[in-house]
Design a protein that fits this description.
- It is a single chain.
- The protein has 102 residues and is mainly α.
- It contains 4 helices and no strands.
- The chain is rod-shaped, with a radius of gyration of 31 Å.
- 0% of the residues are buried.
Length: 102
Amino acid sequence: DRERGGDIYIYIYIYIYIYIYIYIYIEREREREREREREPRCHVDLPRAVISKMDTNRQRYPVHLSRGSACKYTDLPRGTLSENETVGSGDPASELGNQAST
């Protein structure tokens, strides 16, 4: 039956089987990748971490001492705030909202 092309059906079947197998494998990998993107990476509350970092920066880089300076926070002069200097509302959440709107 080989002389009449009987093996061609076997080759087509194998080709289709491999094609379907590869397609299913690729779809499974894509689904796994989508699942990895959806799950939280480090279990970090991002808004809280941002607010905490902003609070730390507010303490390290007081505006009245660090404005216009490229010094490291350890090199900034130490001092206290005068009554005329404003630091902001003191609420990191409101500051975060103000920055997001600009």
